[in-house]
Amino acid sequence: MTAAEAEAQQRRWRALVDERLPAAAAAHPDWPVSRNHCFARILLDNACGGPWRESVAPPAWANMPPERLDLALSLGEAVLAGRQDLAVLNHRSLVWRRKLRLPPAPLSLPGEDFSLRRWQLADDEPFAALCADPEVMRFFPAPKTARESQTEARALARRFDEDGFGPWVVETAEGFSGFVGCWRPSRPLPLGPLIGQETGLVEIGWRLAWPAWGRGFAVRGARLALADVFSRCALTEVVAYTADLNAPSRRVMERLGMSEVGGFDHPGLPEGHGLRPHRLYRLAAADFMAADATAANVLAGDPA
Ligand SMILES: CC(C)(COP(=O)(O)OP(=O)(O)OC[C@H]1O[C@@H](n2cnc3c(N)ncnc32)[C@H](O)[C@@H]1OP(=O)(O)O)[C@@H](O)C(=O)NCCC(=O)NCCS
């Protein structure tokens, strides 16, 4: 970017936060802020994925890397065009700045013909049946015993208390149908060379009973879960990975708009094991939220 282009970009930024957004606020009593420095805080934080002062010296308009200022500008333009919910962006900024406590996880999230809900002890039996099914577990090293499944169910349910989010039970007309949702990986994975980061990751995953396959529960359930973690929990990115061979799971990742980043060998499987080669995908909150209006609805306080 030439010096003249950088200057033009900075002028656009100042016009956006000093004039256009405050002027538009008069017509938007629902907006959580109306002053120029608040608009700047919200847009800059969201462009940086955290409080902007942690990565940029003030004044931000002069020191922000041009590509990030560009992202802040496009977020602001999207707010003006009604394509981006300012309340959601503000919520994320305040959570990052610890001005707002993370609202507790709801008890359920409604879908059209299914819901995501928290775990119950009564799920042990159908979950054990699901994890003992060789068809469901064909891309895992082995099916699980009832005891292993019960331990896993307890650990999955506890995630909501530990992290504020977790894998939800998928409840369909047939009752318990598996799970979909986000969690922090419990083992370190060799992802540094692929995404430059090995800690602080959040992954999304799914496991459904076979009668629930092909009905969109994985994709639609994942969208609900993503809207929740990206809005209520203010996460900036999630990753997903699966065995190279697991085409159905990779298809879900692709339908969610996740980008394939590359391959790695799963450290939990021995050299030469057919399931050891894995593919990694990632999804940025900004990309998801731009494409999914559900994020705003989840934050607006859908049911507990
Ligand atoms: C991976 C897994 C969850 C994918 O399930 P799935 O049934 O293929 O995924 P969905 O439920 O989202 O279904 C998607 C399909 O349903 C279709 N569908 C039907 N009704 C739909 C609706 N109302 N909305 C959206 N999609 C719908 C979609 O078109 C899509 O088909 P397509 O991929 O041919 O386009 C499932 O195969 C599974 O549980 N496997 C075993 C466990 C496992 O491997 N987990 C992953 C470990 S990493």
UniProtKB/TrEMBL annotation:
This is GCN5 family acetyltransferase. Pfam families: Acetyltransf_3. The keyword Transferase applies. SUPFAM superfamilies: Acyl-CoA N-acyltransferases (Nat) (SSF55729). Residues 116-258 form the N-acetyltransferase domain. One of its GO terms (molecular function) is acyltransferase activity, transferring groups other than amino-acyl groups. Keywords: Transferase. InterPro entries: Acyl_CoA_acyltransferase, GNAT_dom, N-acetyltransferase. It comes from Methylobacterium aquaticum.
